[in-house]
């Protein structure tokens, strides 16, 4: 039951880190294309 209580927090942290990585890679690609 304790794990179930903390699951949403863990899932939220995972989603946040994935979003940050995703947006970071997109911005890196945009910068590369702009510099070209």
Describe this entry's structure for a reader.
The chain is an all-alpha fold and 36 residues long. The protein has one domain. 94% of the residues lie in helices and 0% in strands. It is rod-shaped. The termini are far apart.
- Structural class based on helices, strands and sheet pairing: mainly alpha
What's the story with the biggest beta sheet? none
Could you say which overall geometry the principal axes of the C-alpha atoms support? rod-shaped
Question: How are helices and strands ordered from N to C?
Answer: H
Helix content: over 70%
| Count of strand segments | 0
Termini separation: 53 Å
| Domain unit count | 1
Rounded to an integer in angstroms, the radius of gyration calculated over CA atoms is 16 Å
Strand content: under 5%
**Poorly predicted segments:** none
Average pLDDT, all residues: 88
Number of helices: 1
Key phrases:
mainly alpha; about 35 residues; single chain; 1 helix
Structure summarized in a few sentences:
The N and C termini lie far apart (53 Å). The longest helix is centred in the middle third of the chain and has 34 residues, at 2-35.
């Amino acid at each position: 039951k304790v794990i179930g209580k903390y699951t949403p927090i863990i899932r939220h942290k995972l989603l946040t880190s994935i979003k940050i990585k995703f947006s970071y890679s997109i911005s890196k690609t945009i910068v590369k294309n702009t510099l070209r």
